[in-house]
UniProtKB/TrEMBL annotation:
The active site is at residues 338, 422. This is Cobyric acid synthase. It comes from the Bacteria. CDD domains: CobQ_N (cd05389), GATase1_CobQ (cd01750). The keyword Hydrolase does not apply. The gene is cobQ. It holds the Pfam family GATase_3. Residues 6-230 form the CobQ/CobB/MinD/ParA nucleotide binding domain. Belongs to the CobB/CobQ family. CobQ subfamily. It comes from Kitasatospora kazusensis. The lineage of its organism: Bacteria, Bacillati, Actinomycetota, Actinomycetes, Kitasatosporales.
């Protein structure tokens, strides 16, 4: 078998990534060798594969759902927005250009060709490839150069299922409107619907599902309930309140909780570094954009940034520099990761990303940063607190350490730590050791849970996605689409503004 399917969505954040991952896990459970694929991804949340390629973190998560090793072919085009309205283009895991929207548009025919080559390669090595679209397939202003939605589906002859988010309202209009805006050729590929994030009594929804089927000629393949606490690797930080904001401190082991404030940079990247902290019992992780939000924090984290110099300027404009300096003088913990680590140093020389030249850092660590044109992509392994630590690196800024104590290829001075390593906090032993020291420095009676496993928690969440598809989707219909391909001319064309009469 060499089947494939494209999961599109009526909007961004409709649930494409979740449904794609769920289908991957459902198939993997049945012994099917399956791979995820997203031709074009716009995200500041990325991952480094075992062979040193950069891809979207969501595709790495979907590969984990499929129980396969992530690779560059699963996300051939990654766009990383910068501070100046331009984006870095990452092609097959390597940064190749910085472009504006119109410049990028001109590159799309070549990028579609490369994406189709990657998809064909995956289909030759896997039994099923589950593709994820980007944004909406009905972005008619972009259709002529589309490489991720209907442009891909038509070129690769893929059946398409469309996910709609009922929680935001208007899901039936969004589904009908999506189909009606497509050309007859594109409509041939749309085979069915998924209603996502449903709450309430399914009996109340049933008449609407039947009407949608009659209006469009496409069945609803599943009504998926709202799931809370998934904490999956999201593509971007546009809706961080649903991605990382954790108000649910669970079962503190000691007598106290530990409060973590994360500085919410405008160009925040790899924010999933904080998920491992947030899932620790007794740890409360919150975002901070104002000085007063740092006041009661036991640990302040400066996370990664796609635009280090610009976000450092924002930090200063927001009045956050003075409280960070005061914390360091008082011996209160601060942790910088990648771009956040670079900001903690004495000086940043950047003729590459911001082209700002030499900029003064916060001066809390004895380091100097020089931005290089070649991006560093690595999967380092090291040790801290006597614990093995695995991580990954994605950065242009190269840090020279001129003092302090070693810390994961970075350094430490007093209660200020800095490292270029993403993912370090996912290492359970290291995370617990760091939290013990943070609690001691902060004077908190906090005790890390001795048996918390971030890997096990992530695996459990991926299994919940598999359950979502297995229990709430028409899996027989999914199989037919995967094996049979595009439904063909049997599906009716739905013209804009002309719904077919509803039958009583």
């Amino acid at each position: 078998m060499s089947g494939a399917l494209l999961v599109a969505g009526t909007t961004s954040d409709a649930g494409k990534s979740v449904v794609t991952a769920g289908i991957c896990r459902w198939l993997a459970r049945q012994g099917v060798r399956v791979a995820p694929f997203k031709a074009q991804n716009m995200s500041l949340n990325s991952f480094v594969t075992a062979d040193g390629a950069e891809i979207g973190r969501a595709q790495a998560m979907q590969a984990a759902a499929a129980r396969v090793e992530p690779e560059a072919a699963m996300n051939p085009v990654l766009l990383k927005p910068g501070a100046d309205g331009r984006s870095q283009v990452v092609l097959l895991g390597r940064a190749v250009a910085e472009v504006g929207a119109m410049d990028y548009r001109e590159r799309k025919p070549v990028l579609l060709e490369r994406s189709l080559e990657c998809l064909a390669d995956l289909r030759s090595r896997y039994e099923v490839v589950v593709c994820e679209g980007a944004g909406s397939p009905a972005e008619i202003n972009l259709r002529d150069r589309d490489i991720a939605n209907m442009g891909l589906a038509v070129a690769a002859k893929l059946p398409v299922v469309v996910v709609g988010d009922i929680d935001r309202g208007g899901v039936f209009a969004a589904m009908y409107g999506t189909l009606a805006l497509l050309s007859a050729e594109d409509q041939r590929h749309v085979a069915g619907w998924f209603v996502n994030k449903f709450r309430g009594d399914a009996r109340l929804l049933a008449p609407g599902l039947e009407m949608l089927h009659r209006l469009t000629g496409r069945p609803v393949l599943g009504t998926l309930p709202m799931l809370s606490g998934l904490w999956l690797d999201a593509e971007d930080s546009l809706d961080l309140t649903t991605v990382v904001e954790r108000g649910d401190v669970r079962g503190p082991v000691g007598a106290d909780v530990l409060r973590v404030a994360v500085v919410r940079f405008p160009r925040l990247s790899n924010f999933t570094d904080l998920d491992a902290l947030a899932q620790e019992p007794g740890v409360l992780v919150r975002w901070a954009t104002r000085p007063e939000e740092l006041a009661d924090a036991d640990l302040v984290v400066l996370p990664g940034s796609r635009a280090t110099v610009a976000d450092l300027a924002w930090l200063r404009e927001r009045g956050l520099e003075a409280p960070l300096r005061a914390r360091a003088l008082d011996g209160r913990p601060v942790l910088g990761v990648c771009g956040g680590y670079q900001m903690l140093g004495r000086e940043i020389e950047d003729e590459v990303e911001s082209k700002a030249g030499t900029v003064a850092g916060l001066g809390l660590l004895p380091t100097r940063v020089v931005f290089g044109r070649e991006k560093v992509l690595a999967r380092p392994v090291g040790e801290a607190y006597g614990e093995r630590v695995d991580g990954y690196e994605i950065h242009h800024g190269v840090v020279t350490v001129e003092g302090g104590d070693p810390f994961l290829d970075g350094c430490r001075v007093g209660a200020v730590w800095g490292t270029t390593w993403h993912g370090a906090l996912e290492n359970d032993g290291f995370r617990r050791a760091l939290l013990r020291e943070v609690a001691e420095l902060a004077g908190r009676a906090f005790v890390p849970a001795p048996d918390t496993s971030f890997a096990a928690a992530r695996e459990e969440r991926l299994d919940r996605l598999g359950d979502l598809i297995e229990e709430h989707a028409d899996t027989d219909a999914l199989w037919k689409l995967i094996e049979g391909g595009v439904p063909g001319d049997g599906l009716p064309f739905v013209p804009p503004g002309a719904p077919r009469p509803l039958e009583n």
